[in-house]
Design a protein that fits this description.
Length: about 200
């Protein structure tokens, strides 16, 4: 597999090598050792999730408090989504910026989004099926959201997504500036210290 860091530090695109024959194909969509080489530590897998979404469905922007946060390794097993990694770390050189990876059942890429980054995707097909490996169990008291339509962030959703479908939870979430003013966002310094603790074998 090939792993490259996105324009947002600590987010990575993973492109697997697919082996096809007359029976179908085989690929490794996750390798803890290859991820560890790129990131500096392996994914401490504690939960696996699957979502199935209608075309146009938007899920996010979501993030969790650090420590412990929730790193995510995400792929689409059916259909296609455009996945966004958003830098919400106050003081980061790319604060408020984002990058994308197309996840689909053709190239079968994955995205790794480190703790303290915002995560969002939009479904480009009906029945878009997304599987997530995450580094901690869901904890609603430490989970937060940012409005995915916040003009300050300016996520660009492709026309092929059609009419956007959002949950009330996401549309009622604060914008980036409001979340920063409320002290909800992680800082760049705290994120770097947390990543360093993981690199040194911490949890």
């Amino acid at each position: 597999m090939q792993i490259r860091e996105l324009s947002i530090p600590d987010a990575y695109e993973i492109t697997p090598k697919q082996h096809a024959d007359d029976r179908g194909l085989f690929l490794e969509w996750y390798r803890y050792d290859r991820l560890e080489e790129a990131v500096g530590h392996s994914l401490n897998l504690r939960q696996g999730n699957t979502s199935v979404s209608k075309r146009g469905s938007v899920r996010g922007i979501h993030f969790a408090d650090i420590p412990v946060g929730q790193a995510k390794y995400v792929t689409a097993t059916h259909g296609a989504v455009l996945d966004f990694a958003i830098d919400i770390r106050v003081g980061s050189p790319t604060f408020g910026q984002w990058d994308t990876v197309l996840l689909d059942d053709k190239d079968r890429r994955a995205i790794y989004v480190s703790e303290a980054l915002g995560h969002c995707f939009v479904a480009l097909t009906d029945d878009a099926t997304v599987s997530y490996l995450v580094s901690d169990v869901y904890n609603p008291t430490r989970e937060h959201g940012i409005d995915p339509l916040d003009a300050e962030i300016g996520l660009r959703f492709p026309e092929e997504a059609g009419e956007l479908l959002l949950s009330p939870k996401d549309t009622e979430a604060p914008g980036l500036a409001e979340a920063a003013a409320a002290g909800l966002l992680p800082t760049w310094e705290a994120a770097r210290a947390f990543y360093a603790s993981l690199d040194n074998g911490g949890n």
